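Changelog-adjacent note: as of this version, every example in the card shows the full chain rather than a window. The one below runs 198 residues end to end.
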Amino acid sequence: MVREKTRTLDKLTTMTIKHVLFVIILLVGFELSAQDQKKSTLNSFPKIELGIRGLDIAYEHVLSPVLLVEPYMSFGKEYQIGITSQRGFVFDLGDDYLTLGSHLKLYYSLNKRLSKEKNMAHNAGNFLGAKMEYIYLFLDDEDGDNFINTSLYWGIQRPLRDQYLWGFYLGLGNYYNFDTSTFSDVSFIANIKIGLSL
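Full-length structure tokens:
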């Protein structure tokens, strides 16, 4: 009985992810067709960022006037922040990890920023994003050490000065644990980063 419920939950989660990706692809298609005559202000460039989750090495690659892909590699430390009924406020540091992943970012505020003559350096703007990443924890524990994270989020990226930039995103995501073959509950994700374009 439990195995049937797990299979049903796995199928439901897989179907939900497929539906979300289908909607994103449709939205991207509509956005691209509406703006394909406009010149892109986005640029491709490598960058190094330091954020709450660790150190990222990434490359922003322009796919269209409003869409870019950002493959990255990240090193960091697992952490948990929250409030529990038994322990109160919790801030726990966990295992070190390595992440390989990619962001897909759809910018929607470029024309507005251009019309207001705002700084467009380092792909400044607001965007909707999707992220998929593989996470490997260096120290094995009872919960396993191989995960896939999929997330949908909203974010911004702005220049600071010269080659420096900062960014922020928040959204929802869930994890698939390869070792236990289970999905996590949907959880809140957030990150803030300061970076250097190379």
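Structural remarks: The chain is about 20% helix and 55% strand.
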